[in-house]
Write a structure and sequence with these properties.
Largest sheet: 2 strands, antiparallel
CATH superfamily: Farnesyl Diphosphate Synthase
Helix content: over 70%
Structural class: mainly alpha
Number of domains: 1
Length: 334
Amino acid sequence: MILLQTKSHGLKSLNEIKAPIAANIEEFEERFRLSMKSKVPLLDQVMRYIIRRKGKQMRPMFVFLAAGISGEISDSTYRAASLIELLHTATLVHDDVVDDSNLRRGFFSINALWKNKIAVLVGDYLLSKGLLVALEKDEFRLLKIVSNAVREMSEGELLQIEKARRLDIREEIYFEIIRKKTATMIASCCACGAASAGADDDTVSKMWEFGEKVGIAFQIKDDLFDYDRSSETGKPHAIDIKDQKMTLPLIYLLNQADFFEKRKIISTVKNHGNDTRRVNELIRLVGESGGIEYARKMMTDYRNQALAILQTFPDSPYRESLEQLVIFSTDRRS
């Protein structure tokens, strides 16, 4: 097992992790806000709303820290972070339309406020802005990395839809889905950061692999939230079960079950997600099967693989913050 070697103990806050790139992130946010302006009042109104509800800014952090560890932060790094944010935001806007979702992280979605037609057009606009950010300065290397990421994310979504119909997903298919859907975005952040710093192809590939492993660990952590007890109610969240999503702890249980047990488990997920008694029974079975411990072990394995890649880079404040960002991604509470 790889042990994390840092200069301080305990889990750092995002502000502490951000310290080596705090000024860069502040400048990026200003540049990004200016880049979102248009000559259409309605579009400007939507863009202001999107900017106001920006979250933890973890993707730009990965970009800038990856650039710092691979070389030097440059103007290209700001373009890389903007490209990632624009294309990622475009996919989220389109996802909310596809999923008919009215909320995203506690805020009304674009389609909830301005309806589907405007949301789709806004997503298209963000996509085109991202492409132009890269093309205006001939950032073809960045564009290739991100275009590959968007392709993989689309493939992952379609693979999940295809497999979800039977709700009997093998573990290797699960990992393929989360690698494409979730891990690819973090991988592209890290690869683009390295590329923007002028790193060679081997270093860019290494940073892609690093981000991919972080992303897989990140998604497994999300899976585990379904079985964590809420501080308010003392009960597990069970959101993924209600949404008919096959997560790693549940897949582990299915692999241990016989034919008839498996049919009952799948029936609960598919037809009885709002039956509190059956859902709680399913959560109990997952715990007794060792599914939660197994998922935690897999998450830790991927996290340690990511940390091992970082150990091949020279020690620096950027490396230490990246190490802490990896730990934050798997120890977070939300």
